[in-house]
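Homework help board

Subject: predicted structure for assignment chain

Our instructor gave us this sequence and asked us to write out the predicted structure in token form, then describe one feature. I got the tokens but I'm not sure how to describe them. Can anyone check?
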Amino acid sequence: YLVPEAHTETSVRLYRATSFPDQWTYERDLIKGDHFISPTLTQYKGVWWLFTTASGNATLRLFQAPDLKGPWTEHPQSPIVKDDLRTARTAGRPFVIDGALYRLGMDCYPTYGSQVRAFRITDLSSSTYVEKMMETPLVKASSQGWNALAMHHVDALQTGANQWIAVVDALGR
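My token output:
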């Protein structure tokens, strides 16, 4: 399945591969009615969660569903981040370490993509959401080379016991 970036559209669309990697079929709209920036999906403890940033990068919304195809409903605490350019923008797929779920957020202050931080989600249910920002950023813009201007996205995947691989997206000169 694929959920593309579609910040100019007013829905989050789900596609299914019919011949991976170059043929895709539209399945359905997961959510609609607003502009959704960098929608990010994860399944955690049997529930699907969709994090998405609102226009302006300062508001983070959260949706939930029993199945990838829905029905999707907005979490009662959503938006879970309000008016905060440092923590709201999604920056990669959430991941689990030792049973704990972590969300990635892009720091857009003082400029877009200055760094990417991890947030440990300490309480997540159909009615509650609590997270704690990890002190040290995962990656920062370096002022030179491939990531001179911004760090945009980190996708981490555990490949074995204490082994990880990550792909990052940055903006260079």
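Reply (TA_rk): Your tokens look well-formed. For the description, you could write something like this. Residues 45 and 125 are 10 Å apart (CA to CA). That's the kind of observation they're looking for.
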